[in-house]
Specification:
Elements: H1 2-24, H2 33-45, E1 49-54, E2 58-64, E3 71-77, H3 104-120, E4 128-134, H4 142-148
Parallel strand pairs: 3-4
Antiparallel strand pairs: 1-2, 2-4
Helix pairs in contact: 1-3
Length: 150
């Protein structure tokens, strides 16, 4: 457990950078093309089985441990809101009228961090982990569309 905590602490600067990058480039529901690309590239680099284009812009990845056990699903939202950012931070939204006011930029960064940690420690796990990066959580029915697509 201590090794996992130390690995998580080492990831912090990278995850802050990912979160700030996503914050600079927010995308509305079902338009999360850039975000989905960042997610898919990262998950593919971890050696996970990645499916893109689920419910248009959703991404699903599977971590197989090779050992019997349960399958768990962890879900992360990706979309931003149609809000003009008023902050003056260096990572403020560069998209007029769109902002990650809902925290989904952090949600994606956390999801990628969880995927990195679990992938690095897969030999200690049993079963399978599905990572679901959902589009259009903010009232557009992204979850329903992902369920409809299986």
């Amino acid at each position: 457990m201590e090794a996992l905590r130390q690995d998580a602490q080492r990831l912090a600067p990278e995850l802050v950078a990912v979160r700030r990058d996503l914050h600079r480039h927010p995308e509305l529901g079902f338009q999360e093309v850039r975000t989905a690309g960042v997610v898919a590239k990262t998950l593919t680099g971890l050696g996970l089985e990645v499916t893109t284009g689920v419910a248009k812009t959703g991404v699903v990845a599977l971590l197989e441990t090779g050992k019997p056990g349960p399958t768990i699903l962890v879900r992360f939202d990706m979309d931003a809101l149609p809000i003009q950012e008023q902050n003056t931070v260096d990572y403020a939204s560069q998209t007029p009228g769109v902002m990650h006011a809902c925290g989904h930029d952090a949600h994606v960064a956390i999801g990628l961090g969880v995927a990195r940690l679990l992938s690095a420690h897969r030999e200690e796990l049993r079963g399978r982990v599905k990572f679901m990066f959902q589009p259009a959580e903010e009232g557009l029915g992204g979850a329903e569309k992902m369920i409809q697509e299986g």
